[in-house]
Every structure is written in C-alpha cells, then in structure tokens.
Amino acid sequence: MFTYYRIVILIVSFFALSALSSNYLIINLTFICMQDDLKDGMTSANQTLVSRYAYSPSEKSLIIWAVAIGTVIGTFPFNFAFIRWGAKIPFLIGGVLSIISTGLTPLAASLSLPFLLVLRLIQGIAYSADFSAIGVITLRWAPLDEMSIFIAVMTSFISFSTFITNSASAWFCTSSLGWRWAFYSHTIATVVIFSLWMLIYKDDPTKHKRVTRDELKKLQKDKTKAELEIDYFVPYTAILKKVSVWVLWLNGLALISSLTFLIIYMPMYLHDVLKFDVSTTGMLAASGPLIHTLTKYVSGFFSDKVKIISENKKLQICNVLATGVPGILFVLIGLARHQQYAHFVLSVIQFMKSVALFTAPIKWYLFIRNERDITEWSYSFYLNGFLLILSSILFFFFCNDQPAEFTKITRDNPTGAKLLEENQQDDEGDGIEESD
C-alpha cells in the first residue's frame, strides 16, 4: 500500500508555488523581445515606427514595483486566511488571480501601461500567498524528521521557476509563436496545476482517504497538540523581542533582495552589457537558479538526515552556503568584465520578499545611469555582496538550533493566556475575533 501520499502533496504544492512565481517573472526576459515587436507599433515624433512595448527604464521600474505593491497588500491578509481557514481555498484564490492576470497581460500591454500595471498588481497579490502556504503545508504534511526537506523543496520554487520561465520565455521569443505565448503557455500550465491542487489537497491528513494509518502515525509522531492543530493564536510580542528572529529576517531580506536583483536584471545585464543573444541570455539566466535549486535539495537532506554534525553547526554551514558564499560571488560578478509559529516567521520573510521587489530597482537606480556600462553595474553587485556577507556574520552570533522561548507559549498555559490578552489589545480593531 502506498504510504507516501505526503510526497504527492509536496510535489503538487511545489509546482503550484512555482507557477505563482513564474507568472510574474515572465516579463523580465520578454522585455528584451517585446521592444522589437512592431505589430502594434506607434509613430514617433519624427515619423518613424516604434514599438509600443519599448518601455523606458522608469516604466520598467513601475511594472516591477506594481508586483511589489501587490505583495505588500496581500501578504498579511493571506497569512491570516491561511491560519484561519487552512491552505486549500486561500491558495486556490491566489492561483485564480494569477491565472487571470497572466492570461490578460499581452492584451493589457497592447492597450495601455495603466492597464498593465493593474494586472501586475493583481499578480503581486497572488504571489503573496506563497510563503504562508509553505508554512501551513509543512506543519500539516511534514513529519518532524522531514521538515527541513519539505521546506528546502518548497522554498526552492523561486529558483526553479526562474530556470523554467527564463528558458521557456527565451524559446518563445525566438520562435514563430512570439513572446505572447510565453504568457499564454504559463496560464495554461497554471490552470492544470491548480486543478490538481484542488483535487488532491486537504488541510487535515486525518480526513484524507489516501493517507494510510501508517503514514498518519508518521505524520503525527512526536508532534505536540499545538503542532497538530494550527491555531491563529501567535505570541507576537515574544517573537518580536527575540534578536535571533530579527537576524533571521535580515538574512531573509539580504538573500531574497539579492536573488530578486539577479532574477529581474540578469537578463538585461547579459543581453545589453555582455551582448549575448536572446537564446544564450535565457540559458545563462536560467543556469544559476537551477544550481541554486539543486543545492537547496541537498541542504535539506543534509539538515534532516546527517546526524554526525550538531544541529547548530548544520545551521551555520547552511547559512554560510546560502548567504556568505553568494555574497563573495556577487563581488566576483562585479569584478567580471565581459517549527511552531513558523507560519508567522515565514510570512514576515514573505514580506521581506515584497520589500526586496522595492529595493532591487532602488539598488539599480542608485548606481546605474547607462544600462550598458559594466562599471556602474559592478557597484550594485558589490552592495549585494556586502549585505549578504554581513547578514551571514550576524547569523553566527545570534542564531542557533535551540527553540526560542516563544515556541513554548500556547493558548493553554498562563504565559500564553497573558500574551493572548496583550495581542488582543494590540490587534484591537484588526477584525480578528476570538472563539470560545
């Protein structure tokens, strides 16, 4: 009898997360070929035909920032919805929003920039569902000894989606189908993936007919009541007072901000500065995220299964690989020429992703005036490298493998009840109601 239904859940969830990410990333590479599309061309002041899609640097930044604004708008409402109602329906809503906004993007681009910005805003709202989904799905469906693997696989969706989308978009750009089919094909794939999600996912493994008794025992082994029952009580005050949590968020911001910078601007850098053609640009822009994805899988297995190294040392090793090494590599690129309450912590990392979508264009604007000047690009790479190395060093001093005190706080103990009362006072007017 099949006793690994959780792996089916993991795979479908991973592809659903990747779909939300891919759909907002498509335009980063199609910018290159859209600017040469004269099908809906306009006549310029000097009576020459120019592309409707030849966006200026400021217009490109608006298109990117629209997604960032959407993720800011959607992050905490989605986080509340996931905690309150589980992952199935809120995540499906994110998928539907992404399907609609992605499928209509070519039409919006042909009509007007404001219409395109509205759809990009909706894509951002849809994209904001992902990290909250990871927290809830992991808590529900991962045994304790597989949680690192689940998180490693699901959080690799950004790199995987970048690899798939850059490769596919480059192919469509150079084919007879054209850049529009990069959006249409992703829309079709997203419909298929979220249809599977709707069919196979349930929030409660105990009520899923595909989960065997043996697998259910494994899912519940050594978990506390608080871990088995996701409650919307969160000790916000205690969490926010913990320095290690802030250092963790700094690491998340540094890593995601740097990764976002690469995802958004690497195609432009490879094509406009290093002068690669569109096909080669797509291949090179996809290769880094592919390596990143494979590394995350190895690190997840390493964290869960290797027992001869202490948990604290494994944390430090993995963090150096995640932030320290990329920090050094960012500098080298610049030199080149030619467990419990995890849903809240992860949701703030999701918010950091929203911040990263703002900071990536800012870092670009700070240093780059000429998109083809390799020296100006170098300064942005240096800044990213510095932030990654700094956050990696701070992690060594403030973070370890021991559960923080707030993980011991629940609704049922006196400290938890006291903090619950404080949270109710702090959140008064937020629309969060207590149940008896």
TrEMBL record:
Q: Which UniProt keywords apply?
A: Membrane, Transmembrane, Transmembrane helix
User: What is the protein's membrane topology class?
Assistant: Multi-pass membrane protein
For this protein, the record's InterPro entries field holds: MFS (IPR011701), MFS_dom (IPR020846), MFS_trans_sf (IPR036259)
Regions of compositional bias (Acidic residues) in chain numbering: 423-436
The cross-references to Pfam families, in alphabetical order and at most eight, read:
MFS_1
List where in the cell it is found: Membrane
Q: Which residues form the Major facilitator superfamily (MFS) profile domain?
A: 9-436
Tell me which GO cellular component terms the UniProt record holds: membrane
Locate the region Disordered: 417-436
Q: What is its main location?
A: membrane
PROSITE patterns tied to this protein: MFS
- Give me the segments passing through the membrane: 7-27, 62-82, 89-109, 115-137, 149-169, 181-200, 246-270, 282-303, 315-335, 341-367, 379-398
List the GO molecular function terms. transmembrane transporter activity
What name does UniProt use for this protein?
Answer: Major facilitator superfamily (MFS) profile domain-containing protein
Organism this protein belongs to: Mesorhabditis belari
